[in-house]
Amino acid sequence: MKYSWQISSAIQAGEVDRSRELVTRSLREGLAPGEILDKALMPGMEAVGEKFGGGEMFLPEVMLSASAFQAGLEALRPWLKADDASFRGKIVLGTVAGDIHDLGKNLVAAMFTANGFEVIDLGVNVPAERFVAAVEEHRPDLLGLSALLTTTMSRMPEVIRLLQKRGLHGDPCRVIIGGAPVNEEFAASIGADLYAENAIEAVRMVRRLLLRRKRGEAVAKVGAG
Amino acid sequence: MLKWGPADIAINSDEVLRYLGYKPGKRISSRVERMLEREIEAAYRLIVPRGYFCTVDAPALPSIRLFQDAEKVAFGVATIGSRLERKVNALFQQGEAARGVLLDAVGSVAAEAVTDLVNREVNRYASGLGFKTTRRFSPGYGPWHVDGQHLVFQYLGKAAGRIGITLTSSNLMIPLKSVSFAVKMGRGKMEEINLGRCASCSMAERCPFRHDRRLCTKAAFSDSSGRNAAVRR
Q1: Which of A180, B16, B183, B207 is the most exposed place for a label (fewest CB within 10 A)?
Q2: Is there a contact between A219 and A171 (Cβ–Cβ < 8 Å)?
Q3: Which residue in A has a C-alpha nearest to residue B33's C-alpha?
Q4: Chain-centre distance of CA A30, in angstroms?
Q5: Is the CB of residue A148 less than 8 Å from the CB of residue A180?
């Protein structure tokens, strides 16, 4: 596809204006919006994910790339098909009660925002009751829980239990957890649906989940994503 | 209370990059380099460096194995205040995540730099008494459980509050960019803490500090369930 390499490169280099301009030019020249998304924007961000995973890119560059991706996606958004569910999700997230660390949660929020999701950020030190009330109010696709300490990660199951008690866990609202002390095994043990090691991985997993849901497939369990 | 001006704090850009995971000696893009310079400049307008330390006779301490070979123990605390972390949050709110990430790392390095200054005062005091000192070590790192915060803050007393640091019920310090630590003092041989502990650390595999033989500042501990977990500032 014409411009695919340039758009992907602009995203990898974190060039916000260039990404927007190239997407706009591609649209003006009649390229299909779905193709611009699948063959230019997405491969750009996937390359960023791979480079980050491989230690070739670091957080500041990744966040610049996310901004470039967001700029391209915003230019494209009015022309995307209404059923493109993977870019129209909603996530409620926050750091659990007792924990006031916000950097990891902020990174995840920024990455979801860049990817076109509606993000409702509840902040830090969020009690279980507030998470559940926000799920009731906003009816999100995902609830994201963050914790940075062993002493606070134990508050995660409390939120999931309350969510289940109110009948709010399960489609449409799945739970994704993250943070330094948690892992896939812990996620499975507390009934979380997804665990992501970093913000890029979180978006990738959630998008996959929404695509599956759109196709009417069974939702993946932790570790199967 | 120990007070310094922002200009007394050396914020080393290589240290910030290392904190962000960049390998030493690896070239970074001129764009990130310029952004980092700007955030370091911004940090100097945001940090309020404060510190305090006190000393306790080791036999007066609860029987904690960590302190058994010391004659005295210094408990210290350092902070850069909360303005920088408020600015980091504002940057994220404004969609400036890359700047937020950089300024946050600058803040962490600045907090360590203030801690270095408090540590230097501890060493000077110990030297005046004819004592040797160990390197500093903090609750929640290596073999010292995060519950150790209670002990540190018990001895720091109201002084911690006077420099603007409070301890939450989950043992976290507010402002987040604060460091609490202990230094062992004595005339005999004392065991260094947190050295060679990587083998038991859950972050060892991906720890960016592992290769340059520095004292661990991003370590792990085992809680009562024996589960390894990380604490990061």
Answers
A1: B207
A2: yes
A3: A60
A4: 29
A5: yes
CATH of domain A4-79: 1.10.1240.10
Task: Give the span between the Cα atoms of A94 and A127, in whole angstroms.
Answer: 10
With beta carbons under 8 A apart, name residues in chain B contacting A109.
92
Complete DSSP assignment for B106-154: HHHHHHHHHHHHHHHHHHHHHHHTT-EE---B-TTSTTS-TTHHHHHHH
Domain residue limits at B170: 2-192
User: In the block, which residue shows the tokens 């196709």?
Assistant: A215
Q: Do A33 and A80 form a contact (C-beta atoms < 8 A)?
A: yes
In a domain, B207, yes or no: no
Residue ranges of chain A whose CB lies within 8 Å of a chain B CB: 14, 55, 58-61, 63-64, 66-67, 98-103, 106-107, 109-110, 113, 148-153, 180-181
Indicate the number of domains in chain B: 1
What ipTM is given for this predicted complex?
A: 0.88
Instruction: Determine the Cα–Cα distance for residues A139 and A177; give it in Å rounded to an integer.
Output: 18
Ordered by start, the domain boundaries in chain A are 4-79, 85-214
Q: Are A32 and A79 in contact (CB under 8 A)?
A: no
Q: Are B215 and B99 within 8 A, CB to CB? A: no
Q: Express as a percent the part of chain B with pLDDT over 90.
A: 67
Alpha helices in chain A (DSSP H): 4-12, 16-28, 33-36, 42-53, 59-76, 103-114, 128-138, 150-153, 156-165, 184-190, 199-214
Cβ-nearest to B146 among A14, A63, A151: A151
Checking if the pLDDT of B67 tops 60, the result is yes
Q: Model confidence at B112, in pLDDT bands (50, 70, 90)?
A: very high
Q: For residue B114, what is the domain's CATH number?
A: 3.40.109.40
- Residue B204, classified by CB atoms within 10 Å of its CB into exposed (0-12), middle (13-18) or buried (19+), is middle
Q: Do A55 and B23 touch (CB under 8 A)?
A: yes
Domain A85-214 architecture = 3-Layer(aba) Sandwich (3.40)
Taking a C-beta distance cutoff of 8 angstroms, is the pair A195, A215 a contact?
Answer: no
Query: Looking at beta carbons, which residues of chain A come within 8 Å of B176?
Result: 100-101
Cβ-defined contact of A60 to B174 (cutoff 8 Å)? no
Note whether residue B40 is domain-resident: yes
pLDDT band at A4 (very low <50, low <70, confident <90, very high): very high
In a domain, B211, yes or no: no
Within a domain: residue B197? no
Q: Which two tokens stand for residue B87?
A: 């600015």
Q: Which residues pair with B50 in a beta bridge?
A: B3, B79
